[in-house]
Amino acid sequence: MKLMTKEQEDQLVKNHKASQANPDKDLGHKAVIKLFNPAGSGTWYFSEYDPETRIGFGVADLGFPEMGYTAVHQLEDLKLPFGMKIERDLSFKEDKYSLKECLEFCKNG
After folding, report:
1. 44 forms bridges with which residues in the sheet?
2. Beta strands 55-61 and 66-71: pairing type?
3. Which of 66, 50, 67 is nearest to 12 (CA)?
4. Nearest to 62 by CA among 93, 23, 35
5. Going residue by residue through the chain (109 aa), what tens digit of pLDDT does each one get?
6. Backbone torsions φ then ψ of 72, nearest 5 degrees
7. Listed residue (60, 46, 44, 59) closest to 14, CA to CA
8. Is 82 left (phi over 0), alpha (psi -120 to 50) or beta?
């Protein structure tokens, strides 16, 4: 499974460009995708994506949730047990939750 659809990638890139154009403003972009590790811990919510560097901005929870940047290409290349890979949560409602809300989800389990 692809980690993001073309439509999701377009929205993530649009958010990234808006943030780059307004670096001093909190534009309050909402999470577009949620990725997870089906074989263990690891959840990521992304609101922005730079296709040139393949780095996304959002919330990462590897046991200690934090907001920041993640190399999406490293998630794509991650080899998990039994041939599994990082997956996209198909039931996640995009553009519904702020990154602050996603951070709280992670903190509160």
Report:
1. 35, 60
2. antiparallel
3. 50
4. 35
5. 799 999 999 999 999 999 999 877 777 899 999 999 999 999 999 999 999 999 999 999 999 999 999 999 999 999 999 999 999 999 999 999 999 999 999 998 7
6. -65, -35
7. 46
8. left
